[in-house]
Amino acid sequence: MKKTIAALMITAMTATAMTACGGNSGQTSTSAAPETTAAETDAAAGDTQAASDSGATALADGEYTIGIGQFAVHGSLDNCREGFLQGLAEAGIVEGENLTVLYENANTDGGMGTQIISNFMSKDVDLICAIATPMAQTAYGATKRADVPVIYTAVTDPVLAMLATEDRMPVGNITGTSDKLPVEEQLQMIREILPDAKTIGILYSTSEVNSQATLEEYKAAAPEFGFEIVETGVSGAADIPLATDNLLEKVDCLNNLTDNTVVSSLPMILDKANKKGIPVFGSEVEQVKIGCLASMGLDYIELGKQTGHMAAQVLTGQAQASELPFEIIEQASFYGNTAVAENLGITLPEELTSSAAEMFDSITN
Q1: Which of 135, 259, 287, 363 could form a disulfide with 292 if both were Cys (CB 3.0 to 4.6 A apart)?
Q2: Mean local confidence (pLDDT), 99-119
Q3: What are the tens digits of pLDDT across the range 295-334?
């Protein structure tokens, strides 16, 4: 553990100072501090050094500070963060008890992501949790020469993102979990729901390698299910409204990925698609809650928990991040929204709904 007594003393001094100022914002205390003799100063310094030399670092045992950097605001990544903290808690590392959490969100801004990781580094965190591929790449780049482990989650293809080798081993002091999508299962589901559909539209961000990798999987697998993939790349959120309008003119349905930039604009995409009566399929449960018709998707709470368990191993010294291969959540489940189906005049097949992990009968705004 990298936490030092000095760092803990600074934290305590800061907390004390803040308490002293509480309720007196803008005021400065005028009370004079009692004079300290040179002998007293030397004695205090000696006591501090003696405490350090005699094992006072035990005060820090079991105390952890981690930084959680999230690339975007949307349900699946929020669930990753929630699950991550649950996974740590299951291992006995509990926020507010023996864990301090610093959390920041980049709002899909790469420059902000860099600042977030730099801020965590300046605060001497014990571990960084990076949520989504762009944040994981930024964290790895910033920590290569520092003794700060990185645990990522919601990284679709760690190998393509250059965070792992083909055998799933880390390229450095970084590991985590992948949210690789069940592409063939998703295409099979769409075919069962829309037996006459021929074209599937996919919006993706050209700057997200995870989206490009998943798009190629869809393009390779689509012919087997009688589909053609019509793709439209965007460079940022500002491109999405026009790109959506153009894509909706060419396809029978849309299929959403876990693309962070696109997911952040999903409510607007859904509104445009609904006005044209075109179904939108999601990639995970939160997207179905807010208006996608259905998904053969992942449970991101469980993905986060899996990540938290890995982080606990690293924090407690059971393993180094560099020793742990990245993990993939195996289970994909059906989620459907009967309110969306009714609005579109679509009946969800009983063979899907009867085995659903969860069904929703309303749309969450």
Answers
A1: 287
A2: 96
A3: 998 889 999 999 999 999 999 999 999 999 999 987 789 9
Q: How many CB atoms lie within 10 A of CB 25?
A: 6
Q: Write out the DSSP string of 81-109.
A: HHHHHHHHHHTT--BTTTEEEEEEE-TT-
Give me the mean pLDDT over the 126-145 stretch.
95
* DSSP structural state of residue 236: S
The answer to whether the beta carbons of residues 107 and 130 sit under 8 Å apart is: no
- Determine which helix (DSSP H) or strand (DSSP E) holds 12, and give its type and residue range: helix 5-21
Quote the pLDDT of residue 62. Answer: 61
Q: Evaluate whether 189 touches 294 at the Cβ level (below 8 Å).
A: yes
Separation of alpha carbons 323 and 170, rounded Å? 7
Q: Is the pTM of this model over 0.90?
A: no
Task: Give the residue among 156, 126, 160, 168 at the shortest CA–CA distance from 143.
Answer: 126
Cα–Cα distance measured from residue 263 to residue 287, given in angstroms and rounded to the nearest whole number = 8
Which residues have CB under 8 Å from 299's CB, separation 6+?
A: 79, 284, 285, 329, 331, 333, 357
Structure tokens that stand for 88 in this block? 């740590």
Say which residues have a Cβ less than 8 Å from residue 107's Cβ, sequence separation at least 6. Answer: 72, 73
